[in-house]
Amino acid sequence: MGDYALSEVLAELLDIDLQGYDAVIPIPLSENRFGERGYNQTAAVLEQKRIVYKEALATTDRARQSELSKVLRVNGENPFSVLNGSEFRDRRLLLVDDVYTTGMTVHHALEKLYTISPSSVDVLTFSKA
């Protein structure tokens, strides 16, 4: 529960204008990671901030990015897939993640999102490792 409580603190610190976006999209967790943690930490911050978000991506189980070398991160397969892609075509999207480490998670997510032809995609991360 202590980790989830941190979402309240981050939400309090988050100051963002969402007027330019049609959809806010959190980086998803795999089913196993969600089962371990019990919540999606990125979605938890958005919920605490009362930001409506949409699930546009799904992910498969993979090793934690923080446990992989940079070479393995760069050469790894893209774990993401698109959900309801037509809903986001020609839309302005904000992709949200909790931590930016090497950028591969965001890169892979953007790679998939661009296949559905949004008008633009910006990225917001809460911290940088």
Automatic annotation (TrEMBL):
CDD domains: PRTases_typeI. Gene3D superfamilies: 3.40.50.2020. It comes from the Bacteria. Belongs to the ComF/GntX family. This is ComF family protein.
